[in-house]
Amino acid sequence: MKPTIDIVIPSYNAEWLLEKNLPVVLKTSPEVDRIIVVDDGGTDNALEYLKKWASKVICVRHERNIGFSKSVNEGVSHSKADFLVFINNDVYPKPGYIRSALKYFQDPKVFAVNFNEENSSWPQVSWHSGKFQFVRGEDKKHPHFSAWPSGGSCILRRSIWDKLGGFNEIYSPAYWEDIDIGWRAWRSGYKIVWAPEPKVVHHHESTFGLKNKQYMDLVKQKNELLFTWQNISDSKMLISHFGFLVINSLRHLGYLKVIFTALKDYLSQGEKYNLSISDTEVFHLVNTPYED
């Protein structure tokens, strides 16, 4: 039976992006049943523009801005599809991108497939200097395992998304929520693939720039700590992480604000994941070429 597929597009004050993005998404996504645009408390005329596509697009409207991770979760809650495509409003898919990605889901353990962004790649991840680190992988000719699903450029299996509980909203408004769900997926025995065939172009015109830069820098650093505290269980890694916190705080006294902000969120909302596959094994798995 043909699988059902919905697209989720979070958007904030970005009518100008939707005017460019949405027609391309509609044209290149014939397999899709519905497109769900989450208008995250914007003050522009996006809602009026989306009425033009009322027969094909559902608009979920927030009265106030609640951020990326919550918006994506909200969009997914309005879908009953077997597969979900996450596309940012500044990402432009190439024809055949969904069809070429679906073949990887023949393996029931595959949770998500990342699209091949023109100027990006799969992440090569490591643990050193007391923290989780990553750089772009070099080989883009062949499929490769990926540590996480790209929050703005992927397709994923709904049933596994539900088992994992979606994005952890402790990371609101944004950053590290996709890395978090990816690590939880791998440690739960699932797989994530970066594929060369499904191609998209990412113009990097995100409206995150509308938010206060100093605040977003704090959020990014805070969420990095929350990811570590919730996901990393290896004792040697945690000892080295404690050393990183001490050294970084001595070098940059302002970093104490990051630590205390993260600690406040962790104590009130955090959860330590105890999953079956070790961090060491996941670091090995995600850095290997894809094998079906």
TrEMBL record:
It comes from the Bacteria. The keyword Zinc does not apply. Signal peptide: none annotated. Keywords: Glycosyltransferase, Transferase. GO terms for molecular function: glycosyltransferase activity. PANTHER family: GALACTOFURANOSYLTRANSFERASE GLFT2 (PTHR43179:SF12), RHAMNOSYLTRANSFERASE WBBL (PTHR43179). Belongs to the glycosyltransferase 2 family. This is Glycosyltransferase 2-like domain-containing protein.
